[in-house]
Amino acid sequence: MGSLSLETDILCPIDCIPTGIYITSKDSLGKPRVLSLLSTFLESCVLQNERVLETSQAKELITIFHGLRAPSLSIQQYIDRIFKYSRCSPSCFIIAHIYIDRFVRSTSIYLTSLNIHRLLITSVMVAAKFMDDAFFNNAYYARVGGLSTKELNKLEMKFLFGLDFRLHVNVHTFGKYCSFLKKEKFVDSCCVKESWANKDDHSCTQSIAR
């Protein structure tokens, strides 16, 4: 994979970037609003993708991120759990969303209820390591995510290679993903992979179709 086409050095904390989502704003329960926005988006994608897989000839690519059955926790509950115990910055969830999008586009997998939880815990952990000054180790994240440390280590390596180790996110890309979630554009585009004209990161999320 090549480098991002729009690279901007981050000269201030990414939470301070005026993206319009107010990344640190809280909902009625006192949680960062980005958590509910992201969970709503991912739940919509999973529902749409599973409907497509059930009604079409498309075959799902099975990876190490797939479980035998869907976890009992919903996506919203799982994201809330990760935030509560990882204590990572809210912006890590936007970064994790960007990483998942990159991973999906490089591997052509569909986001489903069998893989979204493992992708979430892995992407948030990688984002926290890259973005935050302080973060927990893999063993801790494994307990938070309900996995063994050995499994999470394997997921992390698979994820990093799928990203081609492209972990940098420029300010423009971060702002695009924030705006995407805030405006809830996924309502109209969740099932259309090519709804974005440009496949670079600055064209925003394309995991919407996977």
Task: Describe the protein's topology.
Elements: H1 33-55, H2 75-86, H3 91-107, H4 116-131, H5 138-145, H6 149-162, H7 171-183, H8 186-189
Helix pairs in contact: 1-2, 2-4, 2-5, 3-4, 3-7, 4-5, 4-6, 5-6
Q: Give the number of domains.
A: 1
CATH topology grouping? Cyclin A, domain 1
Q: Quick one: how many beta strands?
A: 0
The overall pLDDT, averaged over residues, is 78
Helical/strand content category: mainly alpha
**What does the overall shape look like?**
globular
Question: What is the rounded Rg?
Answer: 16 Å
CATH homologous superfamily, by name?
Cyclin-like
InterPro entries: Cyclin-like_sf (IPR036915), Cyclin_PHO80-like (IPR013922)
Protein name: Cyclin
Keywords: Cell cycle, Cell division
GO biological process, one term: cell division
Summary tags:
210 residues; mainly alpha; Cyclin A, domain 1; 8 helices; cell division; Cyclin-like_sf; Cyclin; cell cycle; Cyclin_PHO80-like
What do these coordinates show?
This protein is mainly alpha-helical and 210 residues long. It has one domain (31-209): Cyclin A, domain 1 (Orthogonal Bundle), CATH 1.10.472. The chain has eight helices and no strands. Mean pLDDT is 78; it is low at 1-23 and 185-209.
Quick recap:
The protein is mainly alpha-helical and 210 residues long. The chain has helices at 33-55, 75-86, 91-107, 116-131, 138-145, 149-162, 171-183, 186-189.
